[in-house]
DNA sequence: GATAGTTCCGGGAAAGGTG
DNA sequence: CACCTTTCCCGGAACTATC
């Protein structure tokens, strides 16, 4: 506990003061100065962001955040007026300058005005915490930095700087406290949410602990990326059924656009930020992440139970689906995520052609919107040509518990 | 032309000045003072609202307005800084005070802040007009007056006051100019639009020309109401096919909730504001106006061509529809506006029961939303039991030109 | 606890900016 | 022109005030 450190500090100081006679004036002065420095740095590092602002932050949209001064209850000098904490947007550049220079420099210019950005630092006597609670903050507008080359606004990271000046009780020292939030991507419209999430995910997953704000690797081992995607997947879809080896292999083929390498080959490769969310997948209108995020969205919104049932193979390409189905009985089908449509779900099924040979058909993918009109289960029930879920589960057994309305409820 | 008046004024003044010797100093002074007054009132009445702000004004939504100073090009004294015109919200009470007191009193407190509400009065040398153009104004928030009794916020009228102080060229007199907009109902959400439109319609239609702001009759002759509804109907639906005697009779039965009176009886009646848009129609969840506005909306959005074709009887009650159809051949149908659902369109048709007797069926009304999913024409085509539009037009002839898609285009 | 009134905000549409 | 970025604003949902 932080407060224990302070106790140790004061005990030490007591001892030194007690021994002051023996130490001589010069040494004592130096010791006291050193004490001051230690206290200061202790105090400064006990000023923390308790509740981070959202890392994807939309302008004109309310958000919350709070900071906490751990040593406040112990050290804060009582004052007539409460100490006020201020929250300001800072650019990556400003954040870097703050991190490098130890002096308490003021910000030259603001990159975006935050409304209701000054709140009192309040000590709660019950819980013994000293917090400033930003309950009703809102970023009015964002001034973008000039970007180099192909950088998009959703790759731009900034942060919220919380700062205050307080007086400490024992020595009446005035200390300037400041702390930065995690990096934040500011967006102005929901259509930027996708890309902003990618930036944040990459940063959270791959940044070093004590980096200069907000540098992060440009390329990372594919294995790390897999872990990251898996964690994100489970958190986002809210499922305990995570991604498996086969899924990773499929994803690797997609992100590297390489259909000849083996799973082992991929394991040792590095994947770049550009491959993750800058380059358009060949022949598609979107990036790897945009596609993957679409999959998570549709799973979360409409297919969670089916995913948990294991009824969705999902991360399987058309060829693989074909190979799996071609030797199965008529009416065997499986569900895969559409490669061509974000958040689309396709049904591949085997049917007997006129000449009596088996062939695999793909149904036009259902979008998330389609599924909100009529659920997947019901749509599968509607389709008479579907009989058994791959490998061989009768469809009413696999989906029966999720059938809803007899027919569509639209007028 | 206003400017001609000014010329006459100056000629008169010249003559008086020329005759000054003959008039004697006292009379001259009185005459000059009178001249001043005349000029002043002339100038003041030449300051007009050129473009009215919307009479239903939503907060946080941009709007436009402009004022024009007719005598500006002739009389305005050139100045280094342009004259600024200010736009402010005033309550009905404030408007009344402004209208009564001739002095240029300032407003005590604002009822709502308008952003970008000060713009320059600019003389355009080409067109010779002197205007202040409010291009980007927005009402931030509205402070409602305390209302008496059952008055709702959408019955509250306010206005925009435009004001400025200018110096006139000949005599360097400084004049304070002000002009009020038409009354305005402020809303904060689209769901108040309905009721606000009712207030504005009533006010525009039934207010006297030189009234105290913004008093208006509480009840008016039904005949006047009919004219008003008809004008509104044609303007809103954008049709030249206005309302007819039969329609008025149907509407009168609805608004007066009187099904025994004759059309002539109604002609001499008065209708009250409460009947128009305060009282709920018996057994329904809405007022007369809300119902009527819903009809106009659905006609405007989805049924304009059919209305113009005369294919929609519309303002007909269930009983009348029954009587019209009962002796017609099987499959004869007509279209009427649903009494129970705002903006709903019902089809009534005649069919032969099992016992061989005719009976009239009513199809569950289509809402505006239904019609935006699949158009009326297509829906009529879909319904096999419909054959001839009343009195006896084959349905493909009446609606064929508006058939669209073979089947619904939803997934 | 129903109704009236308001705020919040997702997302479509379209405008604005930039190569 | 196409694409990126932003603004505008409708209308559902949720919250608040008021009786």
UniProtKB/TrEMBL annotation, chains A, B:
Record's Gene Ontology CC terms? cytoplasm; nucleus
Query: Could you tell me what this protein is called?
Result: STAT6 protein
Question: Which keywords label this protein?
Answer: Activator, Cytoplasm, DNA-binding, Nucleus, Phosphoprotein, SH2 domain, Transcription, Transcription regulation
Main location as per UniProt: cytoplasm
Q: Please provide, alphabetically and separated by semicolons, the GO molecular function terms listed in this UniProt record.
A: DNA-binding transcription activator activity, RNA polymerase II-specific; RNA polymerase II transcription regulatory region sequence-specific DNA binding
Q: Per the record, a Pfam family?
A: SH2
> Gene3D superfamilies recorded for this chain?
EF-hand, SH2 domain, STAT transcription factor, DNA-binding domain
Q: Which cellular compartments is it found in?
A: Cytoplasm; Nucleus
């Amino acid at each position: 506990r932080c407060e224990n450190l302070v106790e140790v500090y004061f005990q030490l100081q007591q001892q030194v003061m007690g021994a002051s006679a023996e130490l001589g004036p010069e040494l004592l002065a130096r010791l006291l100065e050193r004490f001051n420095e230690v206290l200061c740095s202790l105090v400064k590092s006990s000023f923390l962001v308790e509740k981070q602002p959202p890392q994807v932050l939309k302008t004109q949209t309310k958000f919350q955040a709070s900071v906490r001064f751990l040593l406040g209850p112990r050290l804060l000098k009582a004052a007539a007026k409460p100490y006020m904490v201020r929250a300001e947007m800072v650019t990556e550049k400003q954040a870097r300058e703050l991190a490098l220079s130890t002096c308490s420099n003021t910000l030259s210019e603001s990159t975006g005005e935050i409304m209701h950005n000054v709140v009192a630092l309040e000590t709660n006597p019950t819980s013994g915490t000293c917090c400033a609670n930003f309950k009703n903050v809102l970023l009015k507008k964002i001034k973008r930095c000039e970007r180099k080359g192909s950088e998009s606004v959703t790759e731009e990271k900034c942060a919220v700087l919380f700062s205050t000046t307080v007086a400490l009780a024992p020595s009446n020292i005035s200390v300037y406290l400041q702390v930065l939030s995690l990096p934040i991507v500011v967006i102005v419209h929901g259509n930027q949410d996708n890309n902003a999430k990618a930036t944040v995910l990459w940063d959270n997953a791959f940044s070093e602990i004590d980096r200069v704000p907000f540098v992060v690797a440009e390329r990372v081992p594919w294995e790390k990326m897999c872990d990251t995607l898996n964690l994100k997947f489970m958190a986002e879809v809210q499922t305990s059924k995570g991604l498996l080896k086969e899924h990773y292999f499929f994803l690797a083929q997609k992100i590297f656009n390489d259909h000849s390498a083996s799973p082992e080959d991929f394991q040792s490769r590095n994947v770049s930020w550009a491959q993750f969310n800058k380059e358009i997948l060949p022949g598609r209108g979107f990036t790897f992440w945009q596609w993957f995020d679409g999959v998570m969205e549709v799973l979360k919104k409409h297919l969670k139970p089916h995913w948990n049932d294991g009824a969705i193979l999902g991360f399987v390409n058309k060829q693989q689906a074909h190979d799996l189905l071609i030797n199965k009985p008529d009416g065997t089908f499986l569900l895969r995520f559409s490669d061509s449509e974000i958040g689309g779900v396709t049904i591949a099924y085997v049917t007997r052609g006129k000449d009596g040979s088996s062939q695999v058909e793909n149904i036009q993918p259902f979008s998330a919107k389609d599924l909100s009109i009529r659920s997947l289960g019901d749509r599968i029930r509607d389709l008479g040509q579907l009989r058994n879920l791959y490998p061989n589960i009768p469809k009413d057994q696999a989906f029966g518990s999720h059938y809803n309305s007899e027919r569509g409820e639209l007028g």
